[in-house]
Design brief:
Elements: H1 2-8, H2 10-23, H3 41-50, H4 60-72, H5 83-90
């Protein structure tokens, strides 16, 4: 029926808009930059976002991936996740 299809159409659009509106998980900035030599949960979190191996050990490959991510997102590619890069990643 026309009523059924009209009611169903907005649902996917609303669902798709939810994550963009900050509906995802939020992580607070750890207080110190994540970069070369960083270890632990914050390093793993950043690695997962930038497409690096999320092993919690931020090495040269992670730095290279981070610089590419920063460039692609209009940030200064300094290879370090300070407050500005963190906000761009996690809102």
């Amino acid at each position: 029926s026309p009523d059924g299809s009209a009611a169903a159409a907005p649902a996917p659009a609303a669902a798709a808009a939810a994550p963009a509106g900050g509906g995802g998980m939020r992580f607070d900035y750890p207080g110190t930059p994540v970069g070369l030599g960083s270890k632990g949960a914050s390093a793993s979190l950043v690695q997962a976002i930038i497409g690096a191996k999320a092993d919690g050990d931020f090495g040269p490959k992670s730095v290279a991936s981070l610089k590419a991510w920063q460039t692609a997102n209009g940030l200064t590619a300094d290879g370090s996740v300070g407050p500005v890069t963190w906000k761009k990643m996690f809102g």
